[in-house]
Write a structure and sequence with these properties.
The complex is a heterodimer of chains A (about 280) and B (about 425). Chain A is of the alpha/beta class and about 280 residues long. Chain A has two domains: about 1-90 and about 180-280, Rossmann fold; about 100-180, no CATH class. Helix content of chain A is about 40%, strand content about 25%. Chain A is built from twelve helices and ten strands. Chain B has a two-stranded antiparallel ribbon. The interface between A and B is large, with 45 and 30 residues.
């Protein structure tokens, strides 16, 4: 793969906690405008990888290069964590949903546009006097939030406290909130966890639309194979912090290493296929 | 968090009695040292006397009280759930509640404006109201830090002290007036906020609380010992009082006075009323300012940081700056309250800035309902007036105070006003028109 078509190049990344190598010499390319899934058994280092990509951990060794269409190449591992979202526009969601539970859904989405609004309010001066420039920016932020809420079917809940909503809805709110940051790379940590089959199917639809229509590259950690195999263009399999396989969904399903990692030595083949079957 | 809800049916009579007996037993144990034993002065020496009959009455009162409380709470809960189930829609209630809060707010403003006129001959009332307003101001300052940004600050009194000493020194040493010194002293307090906040705001929860607690003590100890600057334990005396556009509140003399200018008979009450209006104006300005800030990006960022700091980082917010802005604003408002305090008292010493003050201010914020502006006002009223009203009960005053706080926390665990009002809405409130 050549660099131009990749939004992210992870090179020889290692993350050690004391003697434990959570990620061990991992290289990974994430193609632009596509959906890439990272799968692997529990404790394989998937979330650690996300934490390294989004600045929450400083990797022990290795580099994470983001090819930003406007800002050129950015080294994510050198950016402070908030700059990863602000400057590099790499936005993540969390495995255990992290909304602002007492704030309304709409407020959650407006907070996501904090940097733009803060600038428009001249660091609150213009906002304090409600100057037209600030009012315009606020209206635009509202419009963006309402747009995403409508598209994700959340508009009815706009004025409800986010913490009062059911789990599946909260997952969608978290994605909507991340979209309000204008991501070029969206990192979703188990977005289908806890969703029922119908919600899960809606999520598939949403992810594919985002990649196709909005051109947002998506990096996805997921255990739900019905999601992974359906939406992914590219899959990377981790086990014990190492990459054991990479390729299209078809290739991964037939990869003996993957089957071994997931299901042990025997009878693995059928089960993986069984999960994938619609 | 709320009182236990019995899902299906109320507890049986036996359960209620057992529960009340348990409470009465605890009351009995607690009552032995507090009520059962007392000291009597017998010819110059103290003798321990017993009052078992009192104790028995106390335990019996607790028993009955518990029965009644439990029963009424259960009834209330049952009625509430029934009503909620019947109403179904929650939104109507929220709109109604917010309108009620704003009505109470306006009534409170009108009342506070009229208070000195109604009680013009009662110096004590106006003076106490001024004290309440000082605590309201302090509470609103700390409310930004604790209630909105969720930073547990146990040393708010430090900024109060910095503001007070800044004004005291600026006025006594350099002859600055109240109105010129006010913004400067506020800025000095804010600067102290930056100095403390910059390194320590990386800490979370309990750790931040300990650092701020330490800072509060440091300021007090420094003021106590740096005699050449602060006068040490003797404090700073004869701090000039604020003037009415240069007109002093003094008996007629060589300089123009307020009474002389307006052709009134001199009365010391004028100054009391004037001071009251000064702090009232400062409070109202603070309220408008903070309410407005809450609806701006910074304000929402404060609340977001309180709710989930990690999520804020993931959304590209510079969490340190957000926290620092809340902390510095809180420090500044504390400083303003300090300036007013120094100007009102005319004398300050480190004695006025003990940890006790920090605790009271924090209690005001927590009791009022974290983040609620009106809640702070109500809580200040409770916390300042209760000890005042309790003067007649002498030694039971603090006991009364404690009981009141416990009761409030039982009834309203989230504070007096714990309902959070959204900063913006998608569907505009239809009922307001």
């Amino acid at each position: 793969m050549n660099g131009v078509h990749n939004i992210l190049n992870v090179e020889r990344l290692s993350m050690r906690f004391g003697g434990l190598a959570a990620i061990d010499d991992l290289s990974l390319d994430v193609p632009v405008g596509k959906i890439t899934a990272v799968i692997g058994p529990n404790g394989a280092g998937k979330t650690t990888l996300f934490n390294c990509l989004t600045g929450f951990y400083k990797p022990t060794v290795g580099s994470v290069r983001l090819n930003h269409p406007q800002r050129g190449t950015l080294l994510l591992e050198t950016l402070p964590s908030h700059q990863v979202a602000h400057k590099a526009q790499v936005v993540r969601t969390f495995q255990n949903i992290r909304l602002f539970p007492k704030m309304t859904v709409l407020e959650n989405l407006i907070v996501a546009q904090h940097n733009a609004l803060q600038q428009a309010s001249f660091f609150t001066l213009a906002g304090l006097f409600a100057l037209p420039s600030y009012r315009r920016a606020e209206a635009a932020a509202m419009e963006k939030a309402v747009n995403w809420l409508t598209r994700l079917g959340l508009i009815e809940k706009a004025d409800t406290a986010a913490g009062d909503l059911p789990y599946g809805t909260q997952r969608r709110i978290e994605i909507a909130r991340a979209l309000c940051v204008d991501p070029i790379l969206l990192c979703l940590d188990e977005p289908a966890a806890g969703l029922n089959p119908r919600e899960s199917a809606e999520l598939n639809e949403l992810l594919m639309r985002l990649a196709r229509d909005e051109g947002i590259s998506i990096l996805l950690i997921e255990h739900d194979m019905s999601v992974v195999m359906k939406v992914s263009d590219h899959i990377c399999v981790l086990n014990y912090g190492r990459k054991i396989a990479e390729g299209t969904p078809q290739e991964i399903q037939n990869d003996p290493n993957v089957i071994k990692a997931y299901l042990g030595e025997e009878d693995a083949d059928e089960e993986l296929h069984a999960e994938v079957a619609p | 968090m709320s009182a236990p809800v019995y899902a299906h049916e109320a507890p049986t009579a036996a359960e209620r009695v057992k529960d009340a007996l348990a409470v009465a037993f605890v009351a009995l144990l607690l009552g032995i040292p507090m009520i059962g034993l007392t000291t009597v002065d017998q010819g110059g020496s103290l003798v321990v006397a017993t009052r078992w009959s009192w104790l028995a009455a106390f335990a019996a009162a607790c028993f009955v009280g518990r029965l009644v409380l439990r029963f009424s709470l259960d009834t209330l809960t049952r009625r509430r759930t029934a009503r909620q189930r019947a109403a179904g829609a929650k939104t109507v209630k929220i709109a109604g509640a917010s309108r009620l809060v704003s009505t109470i707010g306006w009534v409170a403003v009108a009342f506070s404006l009229l208070l000195p006129i109604v009680f013009s001959d009662n110096r004590y009332v106006v003076d106490t109201a001024t004290t309440v307003l000082i605590y309201v101001m302090l509470g609103w300052g700390l409310n930004v830090v604790v209630g909105l940004a969720g930073l547990l600050d146990l040393g708010h009194v430090a900024f109060y002290a910095v503001g007070a000493y800044a004004y005291a020194l600026l006025s006594t040493q350099f002859g600055w007036g109240f109105w010129t010194a006010l913004p400067v002293a506020a800025l000095i307090s804010a600067a102290f906020g930056v100095v403390l906040g910059w390194p320590s705001l990386r800490l979370r929860g309990d750790y931040l609380a300990i650092v701020t607690l330490g800072f509060g003590e440091i300021i007090r100890v420094v003021l106590n010992n740096w005699t050449s600057l602060s006068g040490g334990p003797n404090g700073v005396t004869s701090i000039p009082r604020p003037t009415f556009f240069g007109l002093a509140f003094k008996p007629p003399g060589d300089t123009p006075t307020f009474a002389g200018f307006f052709g009134l008979d001199f009365s010391p009450g004028h100054r009391i009323v004037f001071l009251y209006y000064v702090i009232l104006v400062l409070c109202l300005l603070t309220n408008v300012f903070v309410t407005r800030l809450r609806k701006l990006p910074v304000g929402r960022a404060w609340e977001a940081v309180r709710e989930d700091e990690i999520a804020c980082k993931a959304l590209g917010m510079n969490v340190t700056n957000v926290k620092l802005s809340a902390f510095v604003l809180g420090a500044m408002l504390g400083g303003v309250a300090g300036v007013f305090f120094a100007a009102r008292q005319g004398f300050i010493s480190p004695e006025s800035f003990t940890f006790n003050e920090s605790a009271i201010i924090l209690a005001i914020v927590v009791l009022g309902g974290m983040g609620s502006q009106l809640g702070v006002v109500l809580a200040s009223l409770v916390l300042v007036l209760l000890p005042e009203l309790g003067r007649d009960f002498a030694e039971y005053r603090m006991l009364l105070f404690g009981t009141a706080m416990i009761l409030i926390m039982i009834w309203r665990p989230g504070g007096i006003l714990s309902k959070r009002e959204p900063t913006l809405r998608h569907v505009k409130d239809g009922g307001r028109a």
